[in-house]
Amino acid sequence: MKHRDFFLASLLSLLSAVAPSAWAQYLWVDDKGVKQLSDRPPPPNIPEKRILKAPGKPLFNPYAPAEPEPAAKPPAASAPTLAERNDDFNKRKLENAEAAQRAAAEARNKAQQATNCDAARKNQQAIDQGVRLSTFDQNGERSYMDDAQREDLRKNTQKVLAECK
Question: Is the pLDDT at 74 greater than 70, yes or no?
Answer without folding.
Answer: no
